[in-house]
Amino acid sequence: MIALIRPMLKPHRMIMLAIGVALVLYCALSLRWDWVPHYWNDGLIQRGIWTTVWILAVTWGVGLVMAVGLGFAQAAGPWWLSYPAFGFCSVIRGTPLLLQLWMLYYGLGSLFPHYPWIRQSAAWTYLREAWPYAVVSLTISFAGYEGEVLRGAFLGVPKGQLESARAFGMSRWTLFHRIWLPQALYRALPTLGGETVLQLKATPLIATITVVDIYQVSSRVRQDTYLTYEPLLMLAVTYMAITGLIVLAFRWAERRIPSKVA
Amino acid sequence: MLDSLSALFAPDGPLGLLALSPPGWGGNLLLGLWHSMQIAVGAYALGLSIGIVGAYGKLYGNEVVRDIFSLYTTVVRAVPELILILILYYAGTDMINQVLLGAGFDRWAPSRLLIGTVVLGVVMGAYMTEVLRGAILAVPQGQIEAARAYGMSPLLLARRITFPQMMMNAIGGMANLWLNATKDTALLAVIGLNELTLTTKQAAGTTKAFMLFFIAAMVIYMIVSVVSGRVFAAIERWARKGQPKLGGGGV
Questions:
Q1: B94-109 pLDDT tens trace
Q2: Which residue, of A40, B24, B118, B188, has the greatest Cβ tally within 10 A?
């Protein structure tokens, strides 16, 4: 506790803190917050946060699995795997996510209804909704960026590690999942933390294709109440809180790495 | 060759919708690209200026300056760009106008292009500060001390010693930021700025040729990325001359 307080005791920090407290008090007292209970009791705010969080979690998980494949294909695969993987990562990293999202939603979404067999299939109930396009788009985007990160991580694992694993007679699969993959993930972990925050910051884009995430909720509040700042402030605070949680989670994960990788 | 090309883009040809003059939308797409590039270049220049000031402030400034710049970089990097753009777009113009009205001036209605450029520049500045700070830190301390011992003024030191040696460390991060700048211009579609992505959506919605226009826009963005990747690779070769080679990809 003292370690927390002592750095704040310098005069300019106390002034900055006072300005900060004054700003928060001003925002709390003179801005309008009476809409919060209404939307909270509606469950709209919770639903928005939940949508943002589950889409982040699902796209992170699936995207990371895809990225392992993409990164490994580029680092150690034959040319007929590494070239397509490189091309995929380049296209994903070279074009804006918003354009990819709109291409899937408006572009592919406009093609599907032309095929009767798609409309009669069970998948049609999902293809009519917006969230599958959001999930697919954010997943391949994360996979593209992380594939590049993991390519470097796979290449960075010391050769001696792989050679000694082979000398132990490990099969290729054992070598991959016991030696190569864990060490690559350890190396990539600090970068992955930052990239996860970037992925969180990419999620509000899905509101442009009518998915009701927390950003969409705040836009709705803005339209209903004609308030400009309050919903945006709520939004900024929400994202900063989730960012803080992600940073803490990765700090915890990094501490659990058994050995230091030189 | 030229005949088949013009047949491709003729009004009833397979790519007639992309022809440069109406009814083709190619001209509009290029105009959108022009707007995107204007914003990207302006925002990058502003971000670079903020970044240089910020990096020096964070490294050599007094405690107050350091704290202010850390607050700036932390907040900007924790809030999504989309929301920063909205906050600065609404709150920024509103605050300026309140000051102007209070001082007895007329309302100021800046163009979306200008606001977009400034907002993206402020965002870029936060990332640029960190890139340049890291690069300056990587310059061997002895070099700077030796320059001081020679009696160089701070400006001469920055120009002759720090800048050339930090460039080779900074250029990778700066290349990434430039690519981010070109891609982040797409976010300004949300405040209704007719840059490439919004123009594409409008063209696709009007003609119902969704896939054609989205693929065309993808190709345009890819060309921008690949060309800038090449340019930055050349700059990096120049900045690293005489240094050992680095591995690594890039688009």
A1: 888 888 888 888 777 7
A2: B188
Out of A60-74, B101-115, B168-182, give the one with best mean pLDDT. A60-74
CATH architecture assignment, domain A36-255: Orthogonal Bundle (1.10)
Can you give the residue ranges of every domain in chain A?
36-255
Instruction: Determine, for residues A90 and B251 on separate chains, whether the beta-carbon distance falls below 8 Å.
Output: yes
Which of the following CATH numbers is that of domain B2-239: 3.30.750.24, 1.10.3720.10, 1.10.12.10, 3.40.190.10? 1.10.3720.10
Largest Cα–Cα distance in chain A?
71
Per-residue CA distances from B250 to A91, A151, B91, B227, B228 (Å)? 12, 12, 37, 11, 10
Q: What's the mean pLDDT when you consider all of chain A?
A: 88
Interface of chain A against chain B, CB under 8 Å?
A: 10, 12-13, 16, 86, 90-91, 93-100, 102-103, 106-108, 110-111, 148, 151-152, 155, 197, 200-205, 208, 215, 228-229, 232, 235-236, 239-240, 243-244
Q: Are B214 and A106 an interchain contact pair (Cβ–Cβ within 8 Å)?
A: yes
Q: Does B179 touch chain A (CB under 8 A)?
A: yes
